[in-house]
Amino acid sequence: MRDAALLGARFLLGGYMGIHASQKLLGKFHGPGLETISKIFEDNGLHPGREMALAASATEIAGGILTVTGIADPAGPLAVAAAMTVAAAFNRERGLMAARGGVELPVVYATLALTLAATGPGKYKIGPSIPGRLAAVGALVGGVAAGAIVAKMVTSTPAPIEASTAEAGAEPPAE
To answer: Is 68 inside any structural domain?
Structure first.
């Protein structure tokens, strides 16, 4: 039962990472697409915006695939957790709740990812896990990279929410 639950959680998280990335890259699932998200990244201190958006999408796609398959565990969940940590910092000005564009959803994804990284993929997986020491080094490097991006965002002055959403063609959050 435990292994089936872990497989379900891996499919859920990995699938949503694919959807999340396709919103950025392709504008699918009501997403902004690469051109618009690049501008939003720039407005929030992530320069160059296009390259940062591509890196975020690549991390979400790779992390999602590795999470679903269980290959090289815990690399996939740790990549997802790092990307969602940056996403939570990105949404910090909008508060806690997802309905206002806040940090709720990225925090939930990061929590699930860290839980999967800690528990392992279970017996239903395609490939081998990463040896413990290498996984620890990868987690440290990924954590430092995510921390550096978060620090860059927190110390930069974000564009006003209304300006970013108006330029993106989206409605500002309801009051």
So the answer is: yes
The per-residue pLDDT for range 58-87, each reduced to its tens digit, is 999 999 999 999 999 999 999 999 999 989
pLDDT, tens digit, for every residue of 100-116?
988 999 999 999 999 99
Residue 173 lies in a domain: no
Is 115 part of any domain? Answer: yes
- Counting the structural domains of the chain, the total is 1
Q: Please tell me the distance from the alpha carbon of residue 73 to that of residue 133, in angstroms, as a whole number.
A: 12
Domain that holds residue 40: 2-166
SS3 sequence of the chain = CHHHHHHHHHHHHHHHHHHHHHHHHHCCCCCCHHHHHHHHHHHCCCCCHHHHHHHHHHHHHHHHHHHHHCCCCCHHHHHHHHHHHHHHHHCHHHCCCHHHCCCHHHHHHHHHHHHHHHHCCCCCCCCCCCCHHHHHHHHHHHHHHHHHHHHHHHHCCCCCHHHHHHHCCCCCCCC
Per the domain annotation, does 175 fall within a domain? no
What's the pTM value of the predicted model, to 2 decimals?
0.80
